[in-house]
């Protein structure tokens, strides 16, 4: 997939704010601070298109990135961030759930986890929802450049086992720094478009 033009199109909270067209969507979901925005930037070969924050919980809207007018990369707010009010958590949760349950253009969900950490209960709950949704999805383990190469297999087995991934669910190790895993992930994305 050659990317010539990628741009932020809009942030949305409610369905009536989503883009009103037939462009398919690839959606990125995961805990706060696992590297969703960095992943999107790396896939699009852009440094600062998706805003990367050092503090978790900064993405508060559903952000739509238009890629060559052929696909949207959709960045959902991170779940599981403890240092926000219950009201904010509820609003984010409701926004994410509404989007996932109502988008008719959703072609694939990319669940993002940090390779350095065992998936949380929130991750397990999201994975269970994805399994039951019948939507195509895969899991990307980001920040692989932050662990020794010798630990890669061990970390992937931990993630796969904790999430109870079946053999049909791809688990892609990825580094936004080196772009290792980019081609594999882009091939999965292209396959559903």
TrEMBL record:
Its cofactor is Mg(2+). PROSITE patterns: G_ENGB (PS51706). Keywords: Cell cycle, Cell division, GTP-binding, Magnesium, Metal-binding, Nucleotide-binding, Septation. One of its GO terms (biological process) is division septum assembly. The keyword Lipid biosynthesis does not apply. One of its GO terms (cellular component) is cytosol. Residues 22-193 form the EngB-type G domain. Gene3D superfamilies: P-loop containing nucleotide triphosphate hydrolases. Belongs to the TRAFAC class TrmE-Era-EngA-EngB-Septin-like GTPase superfamily. EngB GTPase family. This is Probable GTP-binding protein EngB. The gene is engB.
């Amino acid at each position: 997939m050659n990317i010539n033009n990628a741009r932020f199109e809009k942030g949305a909270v409610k369905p009536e704010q989503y883009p009103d067209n037939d462009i398919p969507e690839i959606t990125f979901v995961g805990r706060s601070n696992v590297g969703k925005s960095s992943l999107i930037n790396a896939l699009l070969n852009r440094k600062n298109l998706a805003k990367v924050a050092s503090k978790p919980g900064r993405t508060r809207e559903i952000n739509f990135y238009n890629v060559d007018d052929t696909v949207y990369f959709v960045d959902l707010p991170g779940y599981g961030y403890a240092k926000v009010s219950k009201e904010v958590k509820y609003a984010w949760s409701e926004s994410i759930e509404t989007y996932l349950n109502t988008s008719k253009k959703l072609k694939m969900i990319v669940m993002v986890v940090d390779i350095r950490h065992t998936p949380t209960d929130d991750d397990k709950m999201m994975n269970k929802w994805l399994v039951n949704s019948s939507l195509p999805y895969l899991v990307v383990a980001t920040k692989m450049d932050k662990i020794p190469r010798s630990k890669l297999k061990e970390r992937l087995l931990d993630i796969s086992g904790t999430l109870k991934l079946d053999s049909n669910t791809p688990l892609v190790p990825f580094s936004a720094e080196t772009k290792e895993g980019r081609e594999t992930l882009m091939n999965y994305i292209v396959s559903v478009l």
